[in-house]
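Board work, copied verbatim: Phorbol-ester/DAG-type domain-containing protein
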Amino acid sequence: MDAHIFLEDDFHSPTTCSSPDMTSGDDLSDSSTNVPASIVNAANYITVKEGCQSAFTTEELNLAINQCKKLVLESEECSEERKWFVRRLIELRHRLQQAKESEEIKTIQVLEESFVKLGHHFIFEYLPTSATKKYCDRCCGTIWNVVQSYYQCTDCQYKCHIKCAESLFRVCAHLVMSENPNYIEKICPEVGLDTQGYRCYECSCRINYNVPKGYYPYLFSDTDVAEARLCNYNGHHYCPSCHWNTPAIIPARVMLNWDFEPQKVSRASYQLIRITKSRPLITLDENLYNFVDELATIKKKREELGLMKQYIATCRPSLESGLVMRELEWRKHLIHSTTVFSLDDLCDIYSGTFLSKIEAMQEVLKKHIKEDCTVCKGRGYICELCDNDEVIFGFDKNTYTCPKCENVCHKTCWNDKKTCKKCLRREQKLEVE
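↓ predict structure ↓
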């Protein structure tokens, strides 16, 4: 069996095995050259022929790599043999990395597929996943998810390398909000560095403002002092590993000042805001309704939705047709209260897309109540203060609902007579009894 048979049966093509780091002119010009027969002998058979196919353990691959490096040095400079040994050395090192990853995966599979730590519910993410670049929240290093597996929290999306999973110090944002389901209502309640002992609020490494900016100056500096960064959400100071200058909308600024300008926050604060942005946790300052016209309009629309809900939620045809699920499940907190918002709600109001959505929902529900459903239409009212026999509802414009008996009449009729006939009948009945 000659060297040509060895190459076709046991090797990938040189072009396939070559990496971006070895795309020199010599490599490209000789990519189709067969391995010279003179380099195959009993001493280097594993290195040349079977190194990438049968040597799957790290020990075998390390031996093959050392032997291949020796052959590179012993071969003649710029010769065909040296070019092939260099290519084989690169391929062996690539196989070694794959073998290490495989051993790590096997170890993790034997130990546990998932575990809980500091409130995080970690699951093991197998490779390969999407090509989107990911970063470890523990060491800030890149997670090469095409060739690396990693852990990810199912609650807050915290990601880390397998080797970093045992040295975590950040509590899960989901657990933090479960224990205290409220945003900080003060705008950046700054805490002095001296109060923190000049240490990062999360990992306790030494920090100061009188150091070079950024993460890499800290890595390669002669001191162990990192740049201090202020979190605009909770007012604490962090190191670059725990504070990536990620911009986020601050709930307190929205609640008090209607300010949607993103501010730089720590990773912990960013994860907390991200997982809670759809939850109804914000109660706005009452003064904002006087300064923001959209808020007053939307408050009125939400009150009307609450009245419509009384019809839809008890209507069997709407429940059977799924109307409730289709319409009321969209941010269902909007119909339970008129004063509580989620951060997503307020962002949509600020961008101008919220009002059109809530009006479209109203039109669907109104059409069902007043036109499509005889049951809901039969639960309407006829004004007792005038001769008009039109069926009216509490969510209609220009209507008035009695706060005592919830009877509905025209607003103009109420303004003229200021009397509710239903309340009068109740009073007369009580007097007779």
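The chain has 19 helices and 18 strands.
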